[in-house]
Each structure stands twice: as C-alpha cells, then as structure tokens.
Batch of 3 targets.
Target 1
Amino acid sequence: MKFGTKNIKILAYNEEAYIGLLNGTIKTFNVPNGVNEIKDYLFYNCTSLSSVTIPDSVTIIRASSFENCTSLKSITIPNSVTSIYTFSFKNSGLESITIPDSVTEMGSSSFENCTALKSVTLSNSLKDLFRSSFSNCTSLTSITIPNSVTSIDGYVFENCTSLSSVTIGNSVTEMGRWSFYNCTALKSITIPDSVTSIEEDTFEGCTNLTSITVEDKSEGEISGAPWGATNATVTWTGGLN
C-alpha cells in the first residue's frame, strides 16, 4: 500500500482511500481505531484533504505526515499523542492548533510556513521549542510559551511578521539565534529572570521593537544587549530600587 507522493508503505489503509486522497475525490478521512502512529509522509501532498479524524489510539505523528496539506484548516490532536515529529504540518493550511498537554516533544519545522495559522496553544509539557517550529507563520499574532519550556531554539518564530504579543515562561534559560528574526509587529517583550543566555541576533530585524524588559537582572548580566533589536531600549529591573 502506498500513500502520498513519497511511496511510504501503509498497511492499515486501503487502495481506494489512497487513490481518492491523491486525486482529490476524498476530502475527509477517518484514521481507523487501533492505529498507533501517523506514519512518515502519510498524507504528504494531499492538497484536497480538508478533514482528518485521529483516534485516541495514536501516540506519534511522524515526519511530514501532513506536509503540504494546503486545504487542511483545522485538526484535533488527541490527548494520547506524545510526540509530533519534524515537518509534520509544514506548509499546511491550518488556521489554529492546540497541542495537548500529553505532547512532550515537537520536532523542528513542525509548523513552518503555515501562513494561515493565527492561533497556537502549546502543550504545558513541552521542554524545548526546536529550530524553525513556527518560521514564516505570517498570520500568527500572539504566543504564550509555557513554563515547562527551557529553551527557544534558533529561527523558531522567524518571519512571524504579525506576531505582536509574546509571553515567555519562567523556565526558559536560553534563546537561540534569530529566534524572533524579522518579527516586525513586535513592539515590546519581557525576558523572565530564568533566562541566562540570549544570542546577539535573537531579535534582529525586529524594527518596531522598542522596549525590552529584563526581569530581576542588573545591566550586563546577559551579554549582547539589545540582541539585534537596534531600536530597543533595554530596562534591567534588577538594578532598580
């Protein structure tokens, strides 16, 4: 059995479904109960697919499984899922997504280039935001990074040009290169006192970012300020009486 354009063998689905998904005659699909994984490239390039139901038997959504599903506007990820792999929803048509608290791992570029994505709720069990997770999500307006997250990797919110509100959880310790590159709608941001390392170009291209508040640290405790935000004033609250 072959699904998608990558010719991945899938044993749980039938030939009619495969043909229908690729030629666009099938627009909705119910993954059968008992399936444990959404396989690599399973729905890759199924551009007419608009609705998928995932049963609570699924624990893993593997790499590129919904990549280029440009008609897929929404999807419910069940609480059984623990891992979402690299490129899983890249270039999809998603407009909103909720990552349930069961998810502890979300791979790099998992939602990259989802240009219609406006709303994201992250799992409270995630430990890291990996490279380019939401790069080029140009409709995303706000993000709350949960207290479980300890690091924000490079390019995570690169070119999120509508992103105007960012709340960083109090467990984040490091912020990578260009993690907020070219977030031109961002005007202010608060860095929690848990952060000890910010790359010198983290906020490069954030031309409207004028205020960075660093909580409970004195000036210079984190090197490289203003971290690429050339128009920003940095306020260090640890030095205030």
Target 2
Amino acid sequence: MQIKRLFKLFIFLLVLVSFVTLTGCNNSNNPNGDDLKFDDLSVPLSMIDRVSTSSMPGDPTAKRAIMKAHYSERIKLLERIALETDNCLHNYILKAVTEGRSYTYLKTVMNIPCGRDMYYDRYRKFFWLLDRARD
C-alpha cells in the first residue's frame, strides 16, 4: 500500500509540473515573479490513477519509468493470481492468458497434466480471482 501511495504522489507531482509548464505559471517568464498566480491546482483522483504519459511534456526517462512500474505491477498481479488459482497449472494458465494459447496447444505441445474440463475450470477461476483482485 505504501508503494501505491508513493506512486500516486509521484504521478500527482508529474501532473502538477506539467500543468505549470503548460500554463506558463513559472517565474522564468517574469524575473520579478509578480504575476505568479495559481488559480486552481486541484487534480481529480481519477486523473492521477489513469494519467496518460503521451500528452505530458517532459522527461522521456520519467515517462518510461512510470510505464515500467505500471506494467511491472500488472505482471506481478497476474503471476500472483495464477499461483492462487492452481499451483500445478499456473504456468499453463499464464501461457494461455498472455499468449492466447488454447487447451489443444497446451495438451499437444506442452503436455498439460490435466483434462479439458479441469483446465477450463481453473481458467475461469483465474479470471474470477483477477476480477476480485482488481476491484
């Protein structure tokens, strides 16, 4: 939870810097600083959660770090849910979910150690657990 808060704070700061840059509210335009005004800097929480880095000016390295952290978190979530679903079948479930492999492929090429009914039962359970974890 602490990492999520820090990540949201980091995103908020990036949005704030972008806002200041886009609106020209910095003292580089006026060396006296007498026209430095911030009318309303409130940023909705939904904007912080789903910020799009494509429209943000600034450091491409920071954008890449944000995206890497986002996708890394998603990958860990998928791996954790797959392990919760079934300890023996988690690799097969991940292969099917991430690469779109069918049961036939898993049976013929990867020699999955279960029948079709059991596999699809675990497959549905995976998505059920994933839905619960994302809420």
Target 3
Amino acid sequence: MMKRAPGFLGFLLVAIGCATPQDVMDIPEGGSAGCGAGSQLCGQTCTALARDPENCGTCGAKCKANEVCTMGRCALACGTGTLRCLNLCVDAASDPGNCGNCGVKCKAGEVCSMGKCAPSCAGETSACGASCVNTQVDRTNCGMCGAMCGAGEECVLGKCQLVCQSGLTKCPNNYGDAGVSDAGTIGPNVCVDTWIDRYNCGTCGTVCPNAKPICRFGQCTLPIGPCNNKKCDQGSDVTDANLKWTVCNADCNTAWVSMLSNGGGKYHAEYICKQLGYNKLGAHGGTCGNVCGYCQSNTSCSATGSMNFDNGGTSCGSDQYGQILCYTVMWQCTL
C-alpha cells in the first residue's frame, strides 16, 4: 500500500504525503545516478531528500506525523500565518493565549483581535470563541468557526484548497490506488515533482509506461546506465531548470555533452555526468556559442561539429555539486 500526502506552501505548511509516490519500479540498486536533479535513489524509489518526510535528509529518516521535512530536516509543521510557540503552532493575530506574540495572554472578557487584546473584534474579523479570525483565510476557521482545513491545505476565500510548496505542481490524483485504500487521506489532488514523478512525468497525467518506467528530467526513460544514453537526450542543470544541456554523442564508456541554452550559463558538468551514469568529468572547453561543435556555425546534436576541447570554462569554480563550467561550454563524461 502506497502512502502519500499533499504538499504545502513554503516550508511551513503541513506536508503529510507530498513526497513522490513510493511505487516499486525496475530501478537498479545503487546511488542517486538514476534519478532526476535534486533527487536520490532510496531502495527502488527516486525521492527528494530535501522535502520527503519518509526520507528526510537521508534514506529511511522518517519525520513524525506533526512534522514536515524542510531543507532535509524534520521540523514542526506550522501553517501559513501561524507562529511556533514552544511545541505549538498558533495564530498570534487571534490566539488569546499568544496575542501578538508567544505568551501574551488576554484578560477575561477580551478577545485577541489582529494581534492585540481588545473588548471586541475589529476589521474583517469575527469572533470564534475568544479569538477574532478572518474566516476567508483562517485555516482553523475556514468559511465558518471550527471548519479546519486538512493537512497541506490553505483557506482561500473561505474554502480549503491544496497549495503546493515551491518546486511541486498540483495535479489530479491519478495514482493506481487513488480513492481506494488512500480514501480520505489524499483527496482529488496531489502535489508532485514532475521532474521525477512516474505518474506525472513532465506534465500532469503523463504516466511512464512499463517499457520506460523511470521519470528522469521530466521524461520517461529506461533505468539509468551509461549504455542507455543517446544522442540528443536533454536535461536541465541541478540549480537552474532553465539552463538546458544536450547529449551530442554517447556510448557505454563516454558521453559528449554540450550547453544548449542560448548564451550558455553555469553548468554543473561533474554532477550532470553522474546523473547520466558516468563517474567523472573528462575533457572540457568552450564552444564559441555553438552547440555540439567547436567554434563552428550551424551545429547541433543531430549535426555535430568538431569535438575539440580547449580546457576552457573553469573560471566559475566549484560547489557542493562539483566542478562548474561556464558559459558556452561542452565536456566529456567518462567512467
């Protein structure tokens, strides 16, 4: 039985089950090489360790039910507009026990209105017990007093709606067990990472077939391995989804990769090589602005030019993802 949950806004919303579906796929055992950028292989599943509550920071590190995984660490999950006071999430704008700040208590007969203790509610707020709330946006009183939104939902115009954290996309729940064993725990929509989600690969509803069961870089592919790369395969840099690269040529031992975005950029070439299943960065150099060719016009992955590497492009240094090449560059990946 697969368990997932909806996403959350920012790093504060409760995220019970926004992780990529834990379906069993034909993925070889190994490291993160078989997964898309920002994800890692845990057992037989590609998952984003920075936000997966089942594998938070490392494979198998599970957050508690009231926690979310943010930046690879389990933390108390507070909704948008709420404040963490000790081990509770409170709305300081309306909580009579934490009015305006943690520990500020209103007197008997007072209500907490817009973060201040007062004899009555002000503005667009209305009294729900001793709290003054705006039922159009309050997650615990959405539309009316006592109507609480579910995990991962926000109150929008008085109605609870699923809101996804940055980097995830809201898609209809199209998983195989949707509405059966998971009934009541997910709902009609889910937050997914279309970069690595087999059931929403690239766009909502695009399901990878058994013949190509892996979603990698938003495209359905075979399990990763250097022998599975082919000419004109494309991907994006790990830190910039708009920075595109392409495979000029590849075999089981090496790959020739080139910048694809107009004007180039800062490519994490070493990391890209590992994503493709190779062990290290080989020869590299500039292209004079061309794709898959050294200072030649009208070249492309389907009409390659000279594979001449002048050792340029290293002026941008390196970071946690390894060597960076910039800007209009091409490189080799080797075993």
